[in-house]
Amino acid sequence: MTKDIVIDKINEFLVEEFEVDQSVIKPNASLQDTLELDSLDYVDLVVVIENNFGFKVTGDDFKSITTYQDFYDLIFEKVSAK
Amino acid sequence: MRRVVITGMGIYSCIGKNLEEVLHSLQNGLSGISIDPSREEMGFRSRLAGLVEEPDLKSVLNRKQRNTLSEEAKYAVVATEEALKTAGLDLSYFEENEAGVIYGNDSSAKAVIDAVDTIREKKDTTLVGSGSIFQSMNSTVTMNLATIYKLRGINYTVSAACASGSHAIGMGYQLIKAGMQEMIIVGGAQEVNPLAFGSFDGLGVFSTREDDPKASCRPFDRDRDGLVASGGAATLIIESYESAMARGATILAELVGYGFSSNGEHISNPNMDGQVRSIRMALKGAGLKAEEIDYVNAHATSTPVGDKFEAMALREVFGSKTPISSTKSMTGHECWMAGASEIVYCLLMMQHSFIAPNINFENPDEVSADLNIIATSKEVELSHIVSNSFGFGGTNSTLIIKKV
């Protein structure tokens, strides 16, 4: 899976799951702020990642995530390692 | 002690998705019972059910609010939206005034079972998602309503089997009467999915008259063969008379009596004594004699044993003249919701001066023959109404409303 495909897939499920407009999703934007994520939402983010990519992201993984780009990089790294 | 009045009501049931539709069904004796084919695959004895559609709340609530709603909590939101509207209330009122919530609910089976299925399949608890725990607890309705409507007063759920909704109203009544709360959102909710009713069906107490679903639920009739489970939600806004007057609210009725008792005997079989004590306690609290009651909305679910004991209790307290009907003949048994929805049905009857019929009452049995069962819709002024609710474990609740 190429990185572009991974990014498209992520953007698609974030728009669907978190009901945000596609326009708020920008590589350097804050994931937490734009999606208004609280502690419960991170649980749902784990679920939606598992449903779409078949692996589980842990709480520690999220510690390094600030922007969408960080998020894309993390998921692509895990997809590539599969 | 203060007076307690009802200023709002809302309903979402198998005989109508709002007050207008429900009124039409009650006036015309329309049954909400149908067949749920999925119950056959699951091994149910009976496919009969009072089904309701799961509402789409996207236009009412945001994603976070919807994420924690169980099936029955969704119904409760719809009923509460209507109740707040009829009471002339919106979110801004609750920002400035303390109000509480007490709701009757005694299961959230689908949410629990779905979560366990996921954990068994995935071997991972996180993957049930964040909303699951808030959908799974019996207090799912009150925890969601309290956060959606920013309520800052009393906040708890009453679990008392098929009397849950009635006791919830009774507890709210007591708190306002005692001066501890000014306004409380009260009600009852019931999930309708098959997972919630499998073990109940297994007791063999559901009607199997599948060839004629509309005739299956026939409380007090000689040929009744069991209840039909249904659900939805009903909400009432109750407040002190002073609160209602101060905000210029329209008073729908006054709550004047709450009686309760426990049979102290069998876990599923009723007895007459407990029911009589509950009714008499409510009458005493209201300062009313039995002959002053214009109509009794019976608990009667259409089971051979249950209806017989209630008929005996009603004969003991009211004699043979007081008009009686069971709206469950149309709605089926709304279980945890029934005690609240039946107050909504009674309020509609009081407002529109009629008694909703006990449909399918064709032939009395040896006990119901002594009662004044109203089998067809009847126009009559109603000043005082008694509503009974009884449940497993021998819990009994009786409410009395009065026209103001």
From TrEMBL, chain A:
Keyword flag DNA damage: no
GO biological process, any: lipid A biosynthetic process
Annotated metabolic or biological route of this protein: Lipid metabolism; fatty acid biosynthesis
Modification O-(pantetheine 4'-phosphoryl)serine, positions: 39
Subcellular location: Cytoplasm
GO CC annotations on file: cytosol; membrane
Keywords attached to this entry: Cytoplasm, Fatty acid biosynthesis, Fatty acid metabolism, Lipid biosynthesis, Lipid metabolism, Phosphopantetheine, Phosphoprotein
TM stretches of this protein: none
Entries under Pfam families matching the protein: PP-binding
PTM per Swiss-Prot/TrEMBL: 4'-phosphopantetheine is transferred from CoA to a specific serine of apo-ACP by AcpS. This modification is essential for activity because fatty acids are bound in thioester linkage to the sulfhydryl of the prosthetic group.
GO MF term list: acyl binding; acyl carrier activity
Carrier domain ranges (all copies): 1-79
Major location (coarse): cytoplasm
Sequence similarity: Belongs to the acyl carrier protein (ACP) family.
Function: Carrier of the growing fatty acid chain in fatty acid biosynthesis.
Annotated protein name in UniProt: Acyl carrier protein
Automatic annotation (TrEMBL), chain B:
Family named by the database record: Belongs to the thiolase-like superfamily. Beta-ketoacyl-ACP synthases family.
Pfam families in alphabetical order: ketoacyl-synt, Ketoacyl-synt_C
Protein name: 3-oxoacyl-[acyl-carrier-protein] synthase 1
Localization of this protein: Cytoplasm
Gene Ontology cellular component list: cytosol
Domain Ketosynthase family 3 (KS3) positions: 1-403
Catalysis: reaction(s): (3Z)-decenoyl-[ACP] + malonyl-[ACP] + H(+) = 3-oxo-(5Z)-dodecenoyl-[ACP] + holo-[ACP] + CO2; a fatty acyl-[ACP] + malonyl-[ACP] + H(+) = a 3-oxoacyl-[ACP] + holo-[ACP] + CO2
SUPFAM superfamilies the UniProt entry points to: Thiolase-like (SSF53901)
Subunit annotation: Homodimer.
EC top class named in words: transferase
EC number(s) from the headed UniProt entry: 2.3.1.41
Keyword match Lipid metabolism: yes
Keywords: Acyltransferase, Cytoplasm, Fatty acid biosynthesis, Fatty acid metabolism, Lipid biosynthesis, Lipid metabolism, Transferase
A GO BP entry: fatty acid biosynthetic process
Source domain of life: Bacteria
Organism phylogeny: Bacteria, Pseudomonadati, Bacteroidota, Cytophagia, Cytophagales
UniProt GO molecular function: 3-oxoacyl-[acyl-carrier-protein] synthase activity
